[in-house]
């Protein structure tokens, strides 16, 4: 199978290549097509990818493409990992909301909306190209905000599934804490992308979450950046992104003191590109682990393998709600365990969601509807409405101020804001 | 019919009496039983009530009761307008949340939760007494937070309907702006108690909201305390209570400068009691208009008359959701137009709710579930969870700090917090 | 010598008695007159004091007085340690400013102003009584805010010195860290009461501060509640009270989560009174160490002994500025090392104060002038001006809101606010 | 006399030229040398200046210079009105502090510090050139922050005076309100640049301030952006810049909603440049009045005329404190009325400053010392110390976060931050 990676010039790609090399039995690939408009960067990354595959004895060809069309031509799956506007735009996502006292984050809150505004139009164009050049291919979206982007794709009739590494990271982490193989771990993962709670953790089907928390609440809480009491009280494991809600003001205080994550990543990327440029280097650099996105390649391989091989196993993905969460519209995109097969993802039934999570999920899902409307149809008013709908913003002054700022700062990436 | 008013010693009662007198054709009453533990206050108010009825030539007897049992004995309807803890407790509701940077209000946010915690146990006891002494009687709840209190009553199988004067006030206000009789005005009122939007205003069935806003957006916005642009952009009329959401931080700033509403009302009440003590006074004092609760007597008379007379007209009330709003559980209590008859309130169908309102309604409704759980079952953890679920609070530190403060300050009124 | 302690019924007094017992060589006392309007509490504390002195073989009589006049009659020194309004008023000082987003503290910011308003009139009345009944006696003020109270006394021509335990605590702490006798430690202590920096620490005259910070910055920073970097960067040791300035918003966040210090102390006091009521108890309870005020008795004994014995040693006290700090008016009261003799305290020369400290000292000293004016002359406008002058408040809205709140909550203790 | 204007390519210059034309009797000029590195802009402005002078029949030559040296060669006076980094840097000054919840302003607070860091090194280089090429020339500094820049110049022994249009604007405004000639108005202006209060307003020597406020407090308060009560209570007229102190949080709220002033000015400048490029335009465009800096040309002409003509009249300027304000060091630069003659400015005596103003002046003056130290000697630590000393910042977290941000955003203009 040919696999196309849009945004293939990312410093991140070697993580993916490493996974393809290690898991070649699971997902045999004949060609990895890297698509990126930045030719210089792409050549460095592609060179590194070739050396890594060579070292692993993997037979796949790595091809380089400036244009999406030729890149996705005939592909069996297309992975989206692009970043419209690069780290510079991310830096704005992370700092500009602070001007209004709101958390600066590239997937949550105002920054996440800005990213959706920039990303959705580009992704939809790419998907049209995929439809033309690789009609049956699955589009696996790893580009944030995954929930909104996936819904945009599904609304246009594309064969798309959204992917995130939060669940797989939880699975591996719990396996390590419990000292069991990760394959034995099942997750009661529920919510929206970057707004999820693990309400159940099983080992070979046996519930272990209460015992896990009894023993490891402190370390789990530290990892997700929440106070221990909240993890103990709730009896569930919120994802790290809940920190932006439950600890909003504290995060703002921290962000006021620390430099932005984008600034850190930008520095890291330069170092990574230097490594990739070295013709002698053929193994994934350790620094890449700090770049974010752990287990992303495992998740991607597993998902594509199950889609291609109709395996029918359970994976956590972003897919249409249907009747899974009765308090959300059927068209909403949710993040839950689903059976993955040739026809896509079928969410498993989910036990009734407690009001503490249900209320927030419903609120953020409604925001996502408005965010997608703004991304697709543009206009300051739609942007403002989406901000007013977001539980971390929700005020008229903030919505006004942030809308004007977001649009001004992202004008170059907003087709409607010329 | 005998009507019992629990909290009958309120300075407010003459407003109600005035309505009974004016609308006696609509709702013929033989006895008005005022129930209040404060005998001195009750005697002043009852005296005033008798003089007002006498002046109007109304034949009803006004009786005074320290205990609920005798007061509600044989009543056809029981009106709840009590205030557990009085203006002093209200003052705490309005000032204590400010210590944590949150809006201080007696029905919204942390103050509303405190009021629910104090009120629900008392109301449920009263309702048991009503069940024993006046088995078929309707309980009409005007005591805030009306949504939570009404659900508490319904969950226990009482014949209860929640009543608020927001919708009737909107109706009268729009009638004045449009210069039409208020009876011709229909409202597309939707949401939860104190969290509603008028999405439609009709005159004799004809939609006039766009025209109304075109001409009167500025004055309507001023009345509901919101910026004009938000009213124009949304194209609907949010209730005044949305101000605590859309303008949260601005309200906090204002509350930092101004004295609390409770302090104002306490001063007003003293003046009113002086009037009531005057044996010569037999008409509703003008000051009462500033006390809040305009049109409350009209709303109460209309509701009781329709329940008693099986009139089948449409009134805005608080009742079980059922299938009305599909994004809320059937047991949730919502505030919408409903057909009122001998068997209670049957909500009319509601057009699909836009995501901007739907998300917030769902979030606050989920909070109300947790608030009711805390009020019924007690415990700092339940209080904290309810606060964490509230979109105006939602942070772990705030939930912790407010829970401890609310419980400490309301200890005398919390059966479980001895 | 007879020593009178006004506020002698404090749960604190046994700390003082313990010092008198241990240091009897230094300060021989024939009578300790405890003055307190709360007769019950006074009798418990006086009983405890007598048992402690008996156990130590100290010959002094302990007398109890409800009135100041008889209590101070013929005293050689009068110690002021009263608390107008008790822990309840303190609780207001600590929580009410939070309503406006300001730190709640009983000596700094709005809480400190409230305490000044309550305290100054009472202290001035006491001082007049001292002038009549014990004309040559020194008044040693330990009642906060010490700087403002001391200036009030000096402005009226009383023989007064202000005393605080911050400097003596620093001295003992540095001695422990350096493992030298505390008597060998000299402090370059400068500023106003509760707004001081140690710019020099000497051992037998040799400067050791740089070395001390080199080795112990982390533990010193932790003790004064500041980040280590700030202690290292400044190269001086700010007092714990600078935390309310340098970490203002963080302290507000903490106070939002935690109960007030007054609530803690109130609980502690009940336990202490139970101990004092036990006829078998004759030693200072360990809990007293947590009550605050460590080394207070040492400081008081040393000061009174030097005043009485004209010892001419150097102690850190609150006294008139004169020409010591050229950027403050001569009448300002400052807290610096001074030579203590029969004629009072003569501040030692102070090296030029760096602008980082000078600006804040000048600002707070100007506030203190206005605070004293408000305390002496009353009126909402003077209160507002003092708040507007305070660097932690300084805004018109906050000054308005806090002035109204402070006056309303302290009305019972403000002679001019009837 | 030759007058050199450094930053002569400013869109502002025609304002100055208009004054030179109108007031040619007062200040006869033979050459106006405009110095600016932006040749295109300079040519547009110089062309406009020539046409304006021609229209007025003014004989002065307008010369254009890219370099300071030739521009100031032989000048009698040098006017500094440059802006290092242009409107882009100003935009950062106005928005970046908001990320930390602090007011964004180009002369006050963190933005003012950033401007000082950028400006002082450039101005000192220019001044050295003036010393070489025009040894006796007076340097009149209109570049902000005027207080810090003037002190930097004086500390290096330059013949410098700082100029601001706040006082002259007050004078003209009061004259209009009182309907008297502006020449008859005397001001009791005191403080630091952009931190001043008018404590006296005289007409021909007669005090009229109380009467002025009695009648016009509302309109004066509106103009300086403060609540009327504060102007009435204080009985003085604070400058508009006090708004950033007395109304700090409200200004932050406003700035969150509105676009930055820099963005407005940038738009305005483009329009102005279009006008200047039009060969037919020869009169000051009306839009210029909105650009800021009203009466600046009058102030500049008056000051240079008095310096050159040794007139000995009184003007409000920025000069060394000496013994004028005893609570500030003699080297501090203050803004007060001074006698202007050939030897410069001699401040008039100032009545004792009330503590409400004195404390803030002393605090900000101390900050200015540290700001100048940071501007001259560089380093993150000095920047942090200056921020910690500023009464609008003053917290360790804010100082850390703002220092890192200011340096990162202004790196290109900071010689020490490569």
TrEMBL record, chains A, B, C, D:
InterPro entries, sorted: Glyco_hydro_4 (IPR001088), Glyco_hydro_4_C (IPR022616), Lactate_DH/Glyco_Ohase_4_C (IPR015955), NAD(P)-bd_dom_sf (IPR036291)
Native organism: Herbidospora galbida
Domain Glycosyl hydrolase family 4 C-terminal as annotated: residue spans: 190-393
Protein name, per record: 6-phospho-beta-glucosidase
Family note: Belongs to the glycosyl hydrolase 4 family.
Site (Increases basicity of active site Tyr): residue numbering on this chain: 106
Residues annotated for substrate binding in this entry: 90, 144, 261
Entry superkingdom: Bacteria
One Pfam family recorded for the sequence: Glyco_hydro_4C
Molecular function terms from GO: hydrolase activity, hydrolyzing O-glycosyl compounds; metal ion binding; oxidoreductase activity, acting on the CH-OH group of donors, NAD or NADP as acceptor
Entry keyword set: Cobalt, Glycosidase, Hydrolase, Iron, Manganese, Metal-binding, NAD, Nickel
Note describing how the cofactor binds: Binds 1 NAD(+) per subunit.
Residue numbers binding Mn(2+): 164, 194
Gene Ontology biological process: carbohydrate metabolic process
């Amino acid at each position: 199978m040919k696999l196309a990676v849009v945004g293939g010039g990312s410093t991140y790609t070697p993580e993916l290549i490493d996974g393809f090399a290690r898991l070649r039995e699971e997902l045999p690939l004949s060609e990895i097509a890297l698509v990126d408009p930045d030719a210089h960067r792409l050549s460095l990354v592609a060179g590194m990818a070739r050396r890594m595959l060579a070292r692993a004895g993997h037979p796949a060809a790595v091809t380089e493409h400036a244009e999406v069309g030729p890149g996705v031509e005939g592909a069996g799956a297309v992975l989206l990992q692009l970043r419209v506007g690069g780290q510079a735009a991310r830096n704005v996502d992370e700092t500009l909301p602070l001007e209004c006292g709101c958390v600066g984050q590239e997937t949550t809150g105002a920054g996440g909306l800005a990213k959706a505004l920039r990303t959705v139009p580009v992704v939809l164009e790419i998907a049209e190209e995929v439809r033309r050049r690789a009609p049956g291919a699955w589009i696996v979206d790893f580009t944030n905000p995954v929930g909104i982007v996936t819904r945009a794709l599904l609304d246009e009739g594309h064969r798309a599934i959204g992917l995130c590494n939060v669940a797989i990271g939880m699975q591996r982490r719990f396996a390590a804490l419990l000292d069991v193989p990760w394959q034995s771990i099942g997750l009661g993962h529920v919510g929206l992308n970057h707004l999820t709670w693990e309400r159940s953790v099983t080992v070979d089907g046996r519930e272990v979450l209460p015992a896990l928390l009894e023993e490891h609440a402190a370390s789990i809480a530290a990892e997700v950046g929440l106070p221990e009491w909240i993890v103990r009280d709730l009896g569930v494991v919120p994802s790290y992104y809940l920190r932006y809600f439950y600890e909003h003001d504290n995060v703002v205080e921290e962000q006021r003191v620390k430099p932005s994550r984008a600034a850190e990543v930008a520095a890291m990327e330069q170092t990574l590109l230097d490594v990739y440029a070295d013709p002698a280097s053929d193994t994934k650099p350790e620094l890449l682990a700090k770049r974010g996105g752990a287990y992303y390649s495992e998740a991607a391989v597993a998902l594509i393998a199950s889609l291609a091989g109709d395996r029918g196993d359970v994976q956590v993905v972003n897919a249409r709600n249907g009747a899974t969460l009765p308090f959300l519209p059927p068209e909403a995109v949710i993040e839950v365990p689903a059976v993955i097969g040739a026809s896509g993802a079928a969410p498993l039934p989910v036990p009734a969601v407690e009001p503490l999570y249900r209320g927030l999920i419903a609120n953020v899902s409604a925001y996502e509807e408005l965010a997608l409307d703004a991304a697709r149809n543009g206009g300051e008013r739609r942007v403002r409405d989406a901000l007013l709908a977001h539980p971390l913003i929700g005020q008229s002054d903030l919505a006004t101020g942030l809308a004007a700022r977001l649009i001004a700062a992202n004008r170059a990436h907003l087709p409607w804001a010329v």
